Structures are given as C-alpha cells and as structure tokens.
C-alpha cells in the first residue's frame, strides 16, 4: 500500500513538473520556425532589433560591453568574426545572442552555396555551434539557399523595416527592425542607444513564440 502511494505521488510530481514548469526556462536544442524553407519577416508579440555587424572599432567594443538587456540579435559577418577576437570575447562572455550575416544573394543570380558554407564553418569554428539565425546582406534569398539553410536547421530572417539612424520610425507589433554597422554606416552609438531607450524591444524568440526561450544548438 505504501509503495502504491509513493508511486502515485511520484507520478503526480512528474505531471506537475511537465505542465507547471515555467515556460521561460524552456531549453530547446534546435528548431525551425516553419515546416519548410521560409523567410521570416515578422513576429507576433512585440518588436525586435537585429544589428548587422561587419566593421570593428573601439566604439563598437565599448557598446558591446555596455549594451543592456533585452539584447538585440547580432548578425555577424564571417570575415569580421575572424578579425575581431576582442569583440568576440565580450560577446561570448556576456552571452549576447548572435547569428550569421551572409553575402548577398539573388533569385536571378543565386550565390554559390559553397561560399555560404564557408561562412557557416567560420561561425561554427569560433562559436562551437551552428548559427540559429541567418540573413544575407541584401535580404534576398534564392530557393536553393533557403532549402540548404532549412536542412541545416537555420532560420532565415528579413527585415520588416530598416532603421538608418533617422527619426524613429512607426513600429508595429511583430516588427523585425534591422540596422547595419558597416564601414559606410552613418549611425552613431549615441543614436543607437537613444533608439534602444525610446523603444521597448524583445528577443526574436520572445517575439515569435510569446515567451523567452533558452536556445542551445546540439553538436
């Protein structure tokens, strides 16, 4: 009788753990947002900032050290990754969310997938995992590229709107706001910090799923 009560109690605890465990502590290994190859341009629950990075200087390093949560998603250029060890150290120590910024693509003139794979390999070398998020510089995607990234369980992002440092645009629920930190960018970090303070951003995962997700890529 005692053994039966114990088993029932254990079963009840397991059920409670499964159904009452807080969603915001969920750990998932990999995921595809869609059931097939797709480009995701919007979430559902708020707005998210995605920062493309391909240029380094001390100002960027200081910003990476001080940017506050909720952190924007950083899409990193592969060549930038290789030449920016100090920046990478800060990103990894602070666990800033990252993805891969790929080269330009086109439906009419698809990119060589070997070039994209080389960039993926560089990301994996430095981060010890496959990027969960991906975007090309021109936000265009051939079908071959979409199929290839889907097979590797990488999710393709494209902007709802692009912020270039001008007056704050009118944001809508679900928006993915892209901005670039390239060599020819004119956005100052003062403008960027003001933009972050003036708007309530959330992580990509929270925007898409409605709750925070701890994501970890499986080896």
Biggest β-sheet, characterized?
8 strands, parallel
SSE class: alpha/beta
Rounded to the nearest angstrom, the radius of gyration is 20 Å
Large-scale geometry? globular
Tell me how many strands there are. Answer: 10
Question: Strand order within the widest sheet?
Answer: 2-7-6-5-4-3-9-8
Number of helices: 8
Provide mean pLDDT, rounded.
84
Approximately what portion of the residues adopt beta-strand conformation?
A: 15-25%
> What separation lies between the terminal Cα atoms?
46 Å
- Proportion of residues in helical segments: 25-40%
**Low-confidence runs of at least 5 consecutive residues:** 2-29, 215-219
Helix and strand sequence: HEEEHEHHEHEHEEEHHE
Description:
38% of the residues lie in helices and 17% in strands. The chain is an alpha/beta fold. It has an eight-stranded parallel beta sheet with strand order 2-7-6-5-4-3-9-8. A two-stranded parallel sheet has the order 1-10. Strand 3, helix 2 (58-66) and strand 4 form a beta-alpha-beta unit. Helix 2 packs parallel to helix 4 (85-94). The longest helix is centred in the N-terminal third of the chain and has 19 residues, at 2-20.
């Amino acid at each position: 009788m005692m053994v039966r009560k114990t088993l029932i109690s254990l079963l009840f605890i397991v059920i409670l753990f499964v159904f009452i465990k807080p969603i915001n502590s969920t750990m998932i290994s990999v995921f595809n947002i869609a059931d097939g190859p797709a480009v995701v341009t919007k979430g559902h629950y708020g707005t998210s900032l995605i920062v493309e990075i391909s240029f380094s200087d001390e100002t960027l390093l200081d910003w990476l050290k001080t940017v506050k949560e909720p952190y924007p998603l950083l899409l990193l250029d592969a060549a930038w990754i290789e030449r920016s060890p100090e920046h990478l150290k800060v990103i990894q120590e602070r666990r800033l969310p990252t993805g891969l910024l790929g080269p330009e693509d086109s439906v009419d003139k698809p990119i060589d997938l070997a070039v994209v794979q080389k960039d993926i390999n560089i990301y994996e070398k430095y981060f010890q995992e496959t990027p969960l998020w991906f975007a090309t510089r021109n936000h265009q995607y051939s079908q071959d590229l979409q199929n290839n990234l889907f097979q590797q369980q990488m999710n393709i992002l494209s902007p709802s709107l692009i912020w270039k440092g001008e007056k704050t645009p009118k944001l809508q629920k679900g928006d993915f706001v892209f901005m670039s930190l390239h060599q020819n960018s004119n956005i100052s970090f003062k403008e960027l910090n003001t933009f972050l303070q003036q708007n309530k951003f959330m992580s990509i995962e929270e925007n898409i799923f409605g709750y925070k997700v701890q994501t970890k890529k499986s080896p």
